[in-house]
Design a protein that fits this description.
Layout: E1 13-19, H1 21-25, H2 27-38, E2 45-56, E3 63-72, E4 94-98, H3 102-113, E5 117-121, H4 127-140, H5 174-183, H6 203-216, E6 220-222, E7 227-233, E8 236-242, E9 246-249, E10 253-255, H7 262-270, E11 276-277, E12 281-289, H8 290-298, E13 315-318, E14 321-329, E15 333-336, E16 346-349, E17 358-366, H9 382-397, E18 404-408, H10 409-413, E19 430-432, H11 441-457, E20 467-472, E21 479-480, E22 496-498, H12 500-503, H13 509-529
Parallel strand pairs: 4-5, 4-10, 5-6, 10-22, 18-19
Antiparallel strand pairs: 1-3, 2-3, 7-8, 8-9, 11-21, 12-17, 12-20, 13-14, 14-17, 15-16, 18-20
C-alpha cells in the first residue's frame, strides 16, 4: 500500500481496516498500525476514532473490521452523538400512553420534544421495585401477573438483555434511537458495534433516567396502573379506565402494551374492536457451554482475550417451515418469563460483559394460520389460545411450578427421555420431560429434525451436553391491531394508536422505540392538520 502523500495530511481521513483483535482492542497498537500501513507520521495524528466495528469469523483467523477516522494535527473530532433538548410541557395537551416499554417511553420523549404532554400508564412497578417480583419467580415460583420479566417499567427488554440489533432500517432512524440511549447513559459503544448490546445489569438505571426526564419536563408516569377499559364514544376514543376505579380523559391514546398483554387483546376483542390473529413462532431455549460456542464460531480451542463471547445465528427450512435462532444470548442466562401463575415461559438475557459460562438461544419454528384451526372458535384470539395451551401444558408437566421441562438435545431428537439433566442457568430448576409431550406433534417433529440439520452447519452444536428448555413462546405478538397506514390510528377507532410489539408493528427494542416515535409524530401532525380519520371499513369520516 502506497503511503499517503503530504498534501493528503491537511484533513482527516476515513479508513476501512481489517485487523487482528488485539490491534482493535488497544489504541496504541491501532495507532502504530495506521502509521505503518498508511505512512502517516505519528506526530501528525491527533486522534484515531473508531466509527464502526464488527467481527469477521468466516476464516480460521478471526479479524475485526473497523471504520476509523484519523484526525490530523489540530483537527477537532466530530461529536459522537447529539443530545436532544426536551421542553417543559406541564400545561400542554395531554396524550395517554398505555405501557412504559421502549415504544411507550420513546413515544413519551418524542411527544415532549413536540410540545405535547405524555401521561404514561404502566401496569407494573418501577425498575427497582420490579426486582422483588423477579426474585419471587426465581426462588418461590410466585408470578405477579402485573410485575414480572414482561411487565413493568422498561418492558420485556429491561430484564431480558437489551440487545439493540435490528434489521428494520426502513422503519425509521435507528441512529436517533441509539443516540437517545447514549444521552441517557448507555455506552457510546452501541454507536459503533455492528450488534450493539447494553446488558440487563445496565438497563435499569438508563430506564429510570428516561422516566425522570419525562417527569422533569412535566409529563406523568404512573405505576401499578393497569388499563381495565378503553373508553369510546361513537368511533372516537375519549380516555381509559385504570384499576377499575379511575378514568383519564384524552382523545389520543397510544396503545403500547407489549406482546404479552393478553388482557388487552381480550378487552379489545370483547368490545368488538377489530383485531386479527397473526402468525408467530414457538420452540425451545437451547443452552450450550459458551466455551463450545466459542470453539465452533472462532475455530479455536480457546477464545482469545480480545474477542468477545461468540454469538451465533442460524436459519434452516425444515419440513416446509422456517426454523431459526432467536434472541441469542452469549455468556447469558435463561429466565422464567411467565405472566400468569399457571404457565411456564422461557427467555434469555446477558449481563453487559456477557461473562457467564453458558450461551443460550431461542430455537423456534414458524407457525402458520392453519395451525390455529383447532382454536378457530376464539376468532382473532386463536393464536393466543394456541400459545396459552402450550405454556399451560409445560406448567402441568413440570409439577405445577416454575420449573421448566427440559431434555438433552440428542435425546430429544431420538425421542428418548433424558435420565439426567445437569444444572443449567435457569434458576427455578428443571424437570426431565420428553418434550414431545409439550408441543403438538408437527412442532416437535420439525424441531427434532431441525437440530440434526443445525449440527451439520455448526459442527459440534448437536450434542447431548446441550439442554433444551421448553417453551420459548413469546417471540412476537399472536395478535395484530390493524391501523391506518396514513394516520397510524386504528382502522375503526379514531384517536387510538396501536403501537410497538403488542400491536404487531415491531420486533425488539429498537423497532419498538422507532414505532413509538412514529406514533407520537403522527399524533402531532394529525392535531396540527386537524385531519379527520377515515373508517377503512365503511369509508366514512369519523
Amino acid at each position: 500500500m502506497s503511503p499517503l502523500n503530504v498534501y493528503e495530511l491537511l484533513m482527516s481521513k476515513t479508513l476501512q481496516l481489517r485487523v487482528n483483535p488485539d490491534i482493535a482492542a488497544k489504541s496504541e497498537l491501532l495507532h502504530s498500525y495506521v502509521v505503518s500501513e498508511y505512512g502517516i507520521p505519528s506526530d501528525e495524528i491527533n486522534l484515531i476514532k473508531i466509527e464502526k466495528r464488527s467481527i469477521d469469523a468466516r476464516q480460521k483467523q478471526v479479524k475485526i473490521n473497523l471504520q476509523v477516522t484519523v484526525y490530523l494535527k489540530e483537527e477537532r473530532p466530530v461529536p459522537t452523538y447529539e443530545s436532544v433538548h426536551y421542553q417543559n410541557v406541564s400545561n400542554n395537551k395531554e396524550i395517554i400512553i398505555v405501557g412504559a416499554g421502549p415504544a411507550g417511553l420513546f413515544a413519551g420523549l418524542q411527544l415532549i420534544s413536540l410540545g405535547l404532554k405524555p401521561i404514561i400508564i404502566e401496569r407494573g412497578k418501577n425498575v427497582k421495585e420490579r426486582r422483588r417480583d423477579l426474585k419471587a419467580i426465581n426462588q418461590e415460583h410466585i408470578v405477579n401477573p402485573d410485575s414480572n420479566y414482561c411487565f413493568g417499567e422498561g418492558g420485556a427488554g429491561t430484564y431480558s438483555d437489551g440487545k439493540l440489533y435490528t434489521r428494520s432500517k426502513k422503519r425509521g432512524d435507528v441512529n436517533k434511537v441509539l443516540h437517545t440511549l447514549v444521552q441517557f447513559g448507555a455506552s457510546e459503544n452501541i454507536l459503533i458495534d455492528a450488534h450493539p448490546h447494553i446488558g440487563t445489569n445496565k438497563l435499569p438505571k438508563l430506564i429510570s433516567e428516561i422516566r425522570n426526564k419525562i417527569i422533569e419536563c412535566g409529563g406523568e408516569v404512573r405505576f401499578n396502573s393497569r388499563m381495565t377499559d378503553l373508553l369510546i364514544k361513537g368511533n372516537q376514543v375519549v380516555g381509559i379506565e385504570i384499576n377499575k376505579s379511575e378514568t383519564i380523559s384524552s382523545d389520543k391514546v397510544i396503545l403500547a402494551t407489549g406482546h404479552s398483554a393478553r388482557d388487552v387483546f381480550t378487552l379489545l376483542h370483547n368490545k368488538g374492536i377489530y383485531i386479527e390473529a397473526k402468525p408467530f413462532a414457538i420452540g425451545v431455549r437451547a443452552e450450550h457451554s459458551q466455551e463450545l460456542i466459542d470453539q465452533i464460531q472462532y475455530s479455536c480451542k480457546t477464545r482469545g482475550e480480545y474477542l468477545p463471547p461468540a454469538p451465533y445465528s442460524i436459519v434452516k427450512q425444515v419440513q416446509g417451515r422456517g426454523m431459526y435462532s432467536f434472541c441469542m444470548c452469549p455468556g447469558g442466562i435463561i429466565a422464567p418469563c411467565a405472566t400468569d401463575q399457571e404457565e411456564v415461559v422461557t427467555n434469555g438475557w446477558s449481563p453487559s460483559k456477557r461473562d457467564q459460562a453458558t450461551a443460550n438461544s431461542g430455537i423456534v419454528v414458524e407457525l402458520k394460520m392453519e395451525d390455529f384451526e383447532p382454536y378457530k372458535k376464539f376468532g382473532a384470539l386463536a393464536g393466543l389460545e394456541f400459545q396459552k395451551q402450550i405454556e399451560k401444558q409445560a406448567w402441568l408437566l413440570a409439577g405445577q411450578s416454575q420449573r421448566v421441562p427440559a431434555q438433552r438435545m440428542v435425546d430429544f431428537s431420538n425421542h428418548v427421555a433424558s435420565t439426567t439433566i445437569p444444572k443449567t442457568s435457569y434458576v427455578p430448576g428443571t424437570t426431565s420431560i420428553e418434550l414431545g409431550e409439550v408441543f403438538p406433534r408437527f412442532l416437535s417433529d420439525t424441531l427434532r429434525q431441525g437440530f440434526v440439520e443445525f449440527g451439520k452447519s455448526m459442527k459440534g452444536y448437536f450434542t447431548n451436553e446441550a439442554i433444551l428448555h421448553a417453551p420459548e413462546s413469546r417471540t412476537s405478538s399472536p395478535v395484530r391491531i390493524p391501523r391506518n397506514n396514513e394516520t397510524l390510528e386504528h382502522v375503526t377507532i379514531a384517536g387510538l394508536y396501536p403501537c410497538g410489539e403488542g400491536a404487531g408493528y415491531a420486533g425488539g427494542i429498537i423497532s419498538a422505540a422507532i414505532d413509538g416515535e412514529k406514533c407520537a409524530q403522527k399524533i402531532y401532525q394529525n392535531i396540527k392538520n386537524n385531519k379527520p380519520t377515515v373508517n377503512l371499513y365503511t369509508n366514512e369520516n369519523v
